[in-house]
Amino acid sequence: xxxxxxxxxxxxxxxxxxxxxxxxxxxxxxxxxxxxxxxxxxxxxxxxxxxxxxxxxxxxxxxxxxxxxxxxxxxxxxxxxxxxxxxxxxxxxxxxxxxxxxxxxxxxxxxxxxxxxxxxxxxxxxxxxxxxxxxxxxxxxxxxxxxxxxxxxxxxxxxxxxxxxxxxxxxxxxxxxxxxxxxxxxxxxxxxxxxxxxxxxxxxxxxxxxxxxxxxxxxxxxxxxxxxxxxxxxxxxxxxxxxxxxxxxxxxxxxxxxxxxxxxxxxxxxxxxxxxxxxxxxxxxxxxxxxxxxxxxxxxxxxxxxxxxxxxxxxxxxxxxxxxxxxxxxxxxxxxxxxxxxxxxxxxxxxxxxxxxxxxxxxxxxxxxxxxxxxxxxxxxxxxxxxxxxxxxxxxxxxxxxxxxxxxxxxxxxxxxxxxxxxxxxxxxxxxxxxxxx
Amino acid sequence: xxxxxxxxxxxxxxxxxxxxxxxxxxxxxxxxxxxxxxxxxxxxxxxxxxxxxxxxxxxxxxxxxxxxxxxxxxxxxxxxxxxxxxxxxxxxxxxxxxxxxxxxxxxxxxxxxxxxxxxxxxx
Amino acid sequence: xxxxxxxxxxxxxxxxxxxxxxxxxxxxxxxxxxxxxxxxxxxxxxxxxxxxxxxxxxxxxxxxxxxxxxxxxxxxxxxxxxxxxxxxxxxxxxxxxxxxxxxxxxxxxxxxxxxxxxxxxxxxxxxxxxxxxxxxxxxxxxxxxxxxxxxxxxxxxxxxxxxxxxxxxxxxxxxxxxxxxxxxxxxxxxxxxxxxxxxxxxxxxxxxxxxxxxxxxxxxxxxxxxxxxxxxxxxxxxxxxxxxxxxxxxxxxxxxxxxxxxxxxxxxxxxxxxxxxxxxxxxxxxxxxxxxxxxxxxxxxxxxxxxxxxxxxxxxxxxxxxxxxxxxxxxxxxxxxxxxxxxxxxxxxxxxxxxxxxxxxxxxxxxxxxxxxxxxxxxxxxxxxxxxxxxxxxxxxxxxxxxxxxxxxxxxxxxxxxxxxxxxxxxxxxxxxxxxxxxxxxxxxxxxxxxxxxxxxxxxxxxxxxxxxxxxxxxxxxxxxxxxxxxxxxxxxxxxxxxxxxxx
Lengths: 438, 123, 504
Description:
The structure holds 3 protein chains of 3 kinds.
Chain A: H1 2-40, E1 51-56, H2 62-65, H3 70-85, E2 93-98, E3 102-104, H4 109-118, H5 129-139, E4 145-150, H6 158-163, H7 167-191, E5 193-203, E6 206-209, E7 215-218, E8 224-234, H8 235-247, E9 255-259, E10 270-271, E11 282-283, E12 288-289, E13 299-305, H9 317-323, E14 325-327, E15 331-340, H10 354-358, E16 362-371, E17 375-383, E18 394-395, E19 408-409, H11 411-421, E20 428-437
Parallel strand pairs in A: 1-2, 1-4, 18-19
Antiparallel strand pairs in A: 2-3, 4-8, 5-8, 5-9, 6-7, 10-13, 11-12, 13-16, 14-17, 15-16, 17-20
Helix pairs in contact in A: 3-4, 5-7, 7-11
Chain B: H1 2-10, H2 16-44, H3 55-81, H4 87-111
Chain C: E1 3-10, H1 11-26, E2 34-42, H2 49-69, E3 105-106, H3 115-119, H4 129-138, H5 165-173, H6 179-187, E4 193-199, H7 204-218, H8 220-223, E5 227-232, E6 237-238, H9 251-265, E7 272-276, E8 283-284, H10 299-313, E9 326-328, E10 338-339, H11 346-369, H12 377-381, H13 384-390, H14 392-414, E11 418-419, E12 440-442, E13 445-448, H15 453-470, H16 476-495
Parallel strand pairs in C: 1-2, 1-4, 2-3, 4-5, 5-7, 6-8, 7-9, 10-11
Antiparallel strand pairs in C: 12-13
């Protein structure tokens, strides 16, 4: 009897001790659990609030909308694709007709497409580009993306052209261009808003107005006329939106330019600690340490960079291969391959590397054959070069039909005007310096 | 300094999260648990009643501590890297258990003189 | 002023009462203002088992105290604290006299002979008229007696006087010539007190007591010292044995004779006269003496020991002068066949029975519990593992508890009238007769178990830890004695106090 009682008491105390241990265990598990969750909720990104679509409906646009032109096939597809695929189909496109004023379209995108193809909406007078951009800028809220489709032909008001037939040519550089610059300046100040412009070709079936406002009838098949899609919005949102546009199958522009999207050179990078690793070295993501690299023991390192701010041509891998410059006084290394981040299968990476992948557009795979000094840097640079191919699309005398195929009057001054608002003095697209230590 | 200790014993892992997070956390908590267990054994229970003061109890306490150390290392590694348990993690967990054993032994020797009933445990 | 107390125990009864006194002092009964207490056993029966037993107990006490407290003499409380010591330990500065043997017993010389040879070693008296006188006085050959050698003249003296005080008187007189006695006289100091224990019905005691008083008070210096005496009147009978020279029927007649003598010759010589008796209920085996005269301990002897304590603790001004001798006897609340703690009055309870209770708790714990606590920290700290079995201190302690104290309690318990204050064979909760420590339970689970092993382990651990801070490592035995005392006190506290009863 006494023994049983003793056993009961002993067991009670043993139980107490066990409970204490288990309690401590849970306490600890809870602490560590919380820590990891905290890390992940920091990176919340801004979202696109709405997409505005402005269609220029001056008289010169009628030719694009007449019959089954490429324009008529491409633009509706684009609108539908945006509503279904961009941002997982979350966004609705708000359509407007724009000429002398902005006219919101009442109805949804399907209705708009119908309206566009059945009723001929392009009846307005000539379009003054500088005013149109201003109106669009006023209608674009801070987190909006505004799209604008137009032939982008610079022109003064009808009465002014009548008064001076050469006014369009005379004032293109001195008058129109600065107005464009000022409009985009204000946009930039509003919420760091920048622009992308995409050029497409389409057949044309209608009246072409020369710079003197003379009418030139053009039959289908005679000429191909460029039309342009401008995309305007906050830089980060614009980058996101553009990236998604590029993913659309139907999106194949003949011209693509960014303004203001590229601001400062890319200096950020992340070193993958396992992907494509060979040789002996350690990393904390930003620097290479404990590098035991020599001719007998070469190494390979994968470095991820985010080049989304670069103009599209500068994101091309062959362009990069050609133009990247490496400083080799500290070490003997070269970039053996450049892989697009989208092409990397996630299964090849460790879980902790996935974040780095998500923040990169390109991965430079660097082969290091030797490190001369005990500590130094691997310096990689890409000099800034402006793409001036747009000048080929510009023409200043469009009276002759034979000359105007694939060209837009005054286009170079329009683009110059926008460029001037976003001029940056930097010399490099990419300036990366990876510290390396033995 | 825990990082240096674990890197010396387990080796460096490619994933820098070990050196920055896992090693310091696990190191600290293992030490804390070892101290806590020793304190509870010698000063709390060892001065209250002679219920949990013999060598057998000490061994059981130590075994529980080793299990916690093992679990700690393994779970922290898994959480921090996001991966499933691999051989490196198991090695780390076992080494952490051994470290916990050494801690517990040292703190036992230091604290036992302050105990009443466990003064002669384990020797 | 601290003083020494000299306790003379004459004969078998003296030895047995000193045995009880040893137990009381071991239990920690307090002596006030007393420096040393020196028992001196006077018995001519050299092989008397009672004496032997008492001597062994005294030796064990001395060893325990020496190892436990060292030679420190300033211990005021605790088990074995009283400085019970031999005659020879009293200041060695007394010059001129040879120091006696370091023994608690005072030896007589030349006793290995018969009475007649003792008186007349050279057989010079044969045929002398003195011889006729002697034969007239002493030859009491009963008619038809087989054996001459049993006649008084031919009695062997070294077996005691076998209840014949007439022989004892003569022999005791020669005590004065022994060098031990000379030493006694020299060592008694100014404030020292003298106490003499004897039985009135025996042989050695009844004759020795008045002789001893006379011899001591021949020394003028000592005449003024406080003298106490205890005479014990018959409290047992012996069985009939025609072959033995001892006859309990003659106890009463001898008592009467002795009392008459005392009244006359001890007048004005004793300050405090203690008297004890009890209705004889038990019959002892009729043993004439020697190793076989071993009477079981009796309650009366314990009470006799309290007389010694009482006398030793009296304040100087409370002792009446010898001309107005104060007489003391002892009473209990109620008469029963079985006496336990409840029968005593509060004074005795507090002074005597409380320490005995503590000592009994200590005994049980020491003999039964502590050896089982081998794994505990305090056990190892005191190094009991190697010490308990081999160290003389612990061995003496074990022997004292087991062979002396426990045996003593058992004898009193089996004697008539029974004295059973403790249930020595039951568990610690039921140790004291008359009150039990309750074991409280709630829904079948014990909430308060009284004195359990867990309680003891915990308290011993904590007490030892505390004591370690006060008492250093080289005084481990002292720490152990204090530990025993403190754990006994804790058990007593749990017990709640001595039981009492109201008798009608």
